[in-house]
Amino acid sequence: MNRQYDGWRTVYGSAPRRRPTPGGTYLELHGGPFDGQLLDVAGWTPDELAEGACLVVPGDRTGPRAAYEADPGDPTRWHYRGHRHC
């Protein structure tokens, strides 16, 4: 898991002014600081999707990242795996 993302740029639902684009490609995040929000994964390869991602938690840009990984039973849902230095 080596991809790191700024949560404000890629996660929808944390800021009212940000809305997903109709027809976009999104994953639903479960647990952790982004619970119930959508991650924009448009253009990601199957390998990248399988790898998961570390998301920067707004207000905590220097600390560990929120790690999310795909649910083996439902690849459209990612689950929180804890905070990590990714």
Pick out its properties.
86 residues; mainly beta
Overview of the structural elements:
With 86 residues, this protein is mostly beta strands. Helix content is 12%, strand content 41%. The protein has helices at 7-10, 46-51; strands spanning 4-6, 11-12, 26-30, 38-40, 53-56, 65-71, 74-84. The protein has a seven-stranded mixed β-sheet. A hairpin with an 8-residue loop joins β5 (53-56) and β6. The protein is globular and about 30 Å long. The model has no long low-confidence stretch (mean pLDDT 77).
Q: Output the helix-strand order.
A: EHEEEHEEE
> What helical percentage do the residues reach?
10-25%
Q: What's the Cα radius of gyration?
A: 12 Å
Structural class from helices and strands?
A: mainly beta
Average predicted local confidence, pLDDT: 77
Distance between the termini: 7 Å
Strand order of the largest sheet: 1-5-6-7-3-4-2
Number of H/I helices: 2
Largest beta-sheet details: 7 strands, mixed
- Low-confidence segments, given as residue ranges, are none
Q: What percentage of amino acids are in beta strands?
A: 35-45%
What is the molecular shape? globular
Number of strands: 7
Oligomer: single chain
